[in-house]
Amino acid sequence: MIDTLATVLDWFGILVFATTGALVASRKQMDIVGFLMLGTATGVGGGTIRDVLLGLPVFWIAGPGYLIACVAVSAATFFLAHIPESRLALLLRFDAIGMALFAVTGADKTLAVGASPVVAVAMGVVTATFGGVIRDILGGESPVILSREIYATAALAGALVFVLLTWSGFSRDLGLVTGFLIAAATRLGALHWNWTLPRYRP
Amino acid sequence: MIDTLATVLDWFGILVFATTGALVASRKQMDIVGFLMLGTATGVGGGTIRDVLLGLPVFWIAGPGYLIACVAVSAATFFLAHIPESRLALLLRFDAIGMALFAVTGADKTLAVGASPVVAVAMGVVTATFGGVIRDILGGESPVILSREIYATAALAGALVFVLLTWSGFSRDLGLVTGFLIAAATRLGALHWNWTLPRYRP
Amino acid sequence: MIDTLATVLDWFGILVFATTGALVASRKQMDIVGFLMLGTATGVGGGTIRDVLLGLPVFWIAGPGYLIACVAVSAATFFLAHIPESRLALLLRFDAIGMALFAVTGADKTLAVGASPVVAVAMGVVTATFGGVIRDILGGESPVILSREIYATAALAGALVFVLLTWSGFSRDLGLVTGFLIAAATRLGALHWNWTLPRYRP
After folding, report:
1. Residue B117 lies in a domain
2. Position B42 in a domain
3. Interface test mutation site (partner C, options A49, A50, A119, max chain C beta carbons within 10 A)
4. ipTM score over 0.90, yes or no
5. Which of residues 26-65 of B touch A (CB under 8 A)?
6. Contact A145, C37 (CB under 8 A)
7. By the CB < 8 Å criterion, does A194 face chain C?
8. Domain range for residue C91?
9. Which chain A residues contact residue B202 at CB under 8 A?
10. Does residue B143 sit within a domain?
11. Most CB atoms closer than 10 Å: which of A30, B20, B70, C168?
């Protein structure tokens, strides 16, 4: 049941990320092909880098489903961008769900190939954040990890908790759910209460 | 004969892309090593990303030919950049040929590893455009896919036509030639008549 | 003994590169997670791209050591950045050592998988410079290869000398040491005497 839920949330995360990519395209007033490229690259980017680094087959090569879904969402955003724009607060919260899910599933997939816990935490952060990094680089925006918001930190917290629980002998399911909740709560709390970490001061 | 032609055009595309990379280096007044790096990265970039995503051996690792050719063209541009500059209109048309070729051969190589038609179309676009994306990111220019020109759209049209024809049972040769002609004609028409697609308007 | 030395210098190079990444984070006044991400990506970036292009397992996936070391150095920089900052001249010289080492070991690893000498030289340059390229792109800085300083040139010189010596039948050890010294001397000389190569002039 956890795996069914993870699959549903995996698709959910990819589609939310694709929407955030298409919204950058709308901000840059691109044409529909620009929407498709930026939306799709953002949706599948983080998982693609994860698979390439782990030496696994890239997940969206095996079947057309992921690409079709990203293309459909990006095209819909071209015609209906006023909806996600007026719902930006909602979208940011959906994005938090996608990010939290990618953080734990990225770490889980890394443990499954036999890598060490530390590597799994790093890969969770990469999976959760690099779709956004690719979006910002292709879209000519300042990279997300430079922002003052708590984002990568939430992914790190979730991946760390998942890996620690698994490593301590708790079940994978408990780890996935707890890590996911920690990451989502951290990001949602940061959005709601404007949490930040102390910055480096010269 | 199609394969011989495709090989010739493949080299042609790589060398034209390398020249466009070296021309960005000339605009930034880089030294000769900068020309070599930017020219070579642009020439082989799109095909490199294609091969990494498909899990194939990267094409320029197998032999020195591609790198030597890119280095030679980039070095020549350092000494003779006034020639491609004064021939920019011509170069843009050569670039259209290279892009059109990469769109269909990228899709073709993807079908050859057994991936689905949708994935093949996406990979055709990636192969045709990501050399330019790498050039713009390394060169500190605004990414090409943000430009108002029809470029990725032409690659998409060519890859789509090639995949549709192949999928409908037409011969691979007919698909390659038709897709190539569609992509090249779309881009050349866009250059000549300043075609654009409608932009997103808020 | 050369291999022991190479291992020590390999770690040394990764840690110096991680420090330069963390120093960009300090310049951007990021929080500690930003330091960790930028430092680690810079430390392992060049070798990661080398391994992905060669189709080898990515070196830091196999064990946690490299990541832990990068994280530790990046975190230390968050609290102690005034030390590397006040020692910037020293750090640039350490960075030259790391770059020189990566240039020859990147080329060496490429020859070891049976690739041609030309490919090995290119991969030496990629290994030595792309950690810095990733640092600059993620950190929103102008890419290092656009700078007027001699950097990639030094990597190219070292990789070229190593490959030429090996190819001429000299021992691998002699090639590694000589190539390393050439690359380091070129970069250190450029830092000390402000050497530059002639720029392209329109």
Report:
1. yes
2. yes
3. A119
4. yes
5. 52-55
6. yes
7. no
8. 2-193
9. 26, 29, 81-82, 85
10. yes
11. B70
